[in-house]
Glycerol operon regulatory protein (Amycolatopsis japonica), 261 residues
Amino acid sequence: MRNQDAGNATSSQVQSVDRAISVLELLARNGETGITEIAGELGVHKSTASRLLSVLENRGLVEQLGERGKYAIGFGIVRLAGAATGRMDLAKLGRQTCQGLAETLGETVNIAIADDGVAINVSQARGSAAITTQNWTGQRTPLHATSSGKVLLAYMGDVERKRLLRRKLEQFTPRTTVDPDELTAELERVAEDGYASCFEELELGMHAVAVPVHGPGGDVVAAMSASGPSYRLSKQRVRQIVRPLTEASADLSAQLGYFAE
């Protein structure tokens, strides 16, 4: 009986979410719309429509135009749309920056963002010396075993970082750091130094280095990395390319609207 009650509750919640999305789509399509119209479109009682609108209004997703007036899309939608637009701008602007840096370094350059506990590569460019044809764009990579992932971990909120490090971390190679305390100490150094390195932690024979990319408000929104075979991208060379990598990242950050003091 309890399982049936739980199933009914879940079904009701899903239906409420579906109706709330329908309200937003209706307002986006029709503009200012009254509650009677909304209830009719949804096929629900006015009291049900009123409760949905109240929740959406509390989140800033809809607004009522005057006392007992019609409803319209709220500015909260602009905030959500802005986040999506920012990601699209990052991918678009990042391609040109990646290409320029890849030509300078001769190595593969990627830009990655954090998403649901992993790093996702949104842009890539291959340098003249790159030996692999693998396209990492759109690929999900582990945060703890990549240079980009370490940058994203180092600059994310404490609560989220601790939550992610409490999970069992996969050992990809003998060099992968899976001890949470050891990784936390490394992330503190990353935040202090402004870059992260990765030496054969995801793939044997592969080295990488990454730096943060800042958004308009100064938050780290992505990581820019350069990667190559260990015989060419030695630890000494990794330190040498931190500067051009940082300069390219600063240029991309400026295009996104961030200007360091």
